Amino acid sequence: MKKAVLYLSIALIVVPDIAIAQQGGRPPSGNGGARPSPSTRPAPAPSRPGGSAQPSRPGGPSTQPSRPGASRPQPPRPVQPSPGPGQPGGPAVQPPRPGGPSPQPPRPGGPGVQPPRPGQPHRPGAGRPPNFRPIPGPAFRYPHGYRYRRWTVGLFLPAVFFSSYYYYNDYWRLGLGAPPYGYRWIRYGPDLLLVEVRSRRVVDVVYGAFY
Asked: Could you tell me what percentage of the chain is helix, strand and coil, using 3-state DSSP and rounding each to the nearest 5?
């Protein structure tokens, strides 16, 4: 009799546990074990501190917001022109150093602005032209046995003066025209003579052409 009561007690304890295990371990609810409605969804998880909500477009990828501290595109800076010499911030203009080379004025008779050469040849007997001006000339050496004399038109010049040493080709510096064909300008001391080469006859004299 005692064994029957023991077996019955064990059955009453085990059978309900087996039934509960067959129902998936779900405890009975107050509504008779009905399942919860599928429309009930769990609440969204709260956002993390410091984060921002990421709204999503229908059917498209979600837009990522800019992260705090990210670099932004900088506008182009205006280009400043470099200052020139003598301007504030520019290179200083250096004054000439003491003892350095200084510009030299043109020497009398040296190279410089040359007057235009006359286009017309000099006419024998015309003498000094209107734009005549004496110029400094190099030292003149007379031939042996000669010295200065004042030549006049009609005299004959000795043959010793008919050489390249006495020919004067820079007549244009005196404002004179070129000698006619067969004539030469010949220097004699401070004067300039126009002489016919073939006859050696003096046809014109410019006195005081050189100093």
From this structure: 15, 10, 75
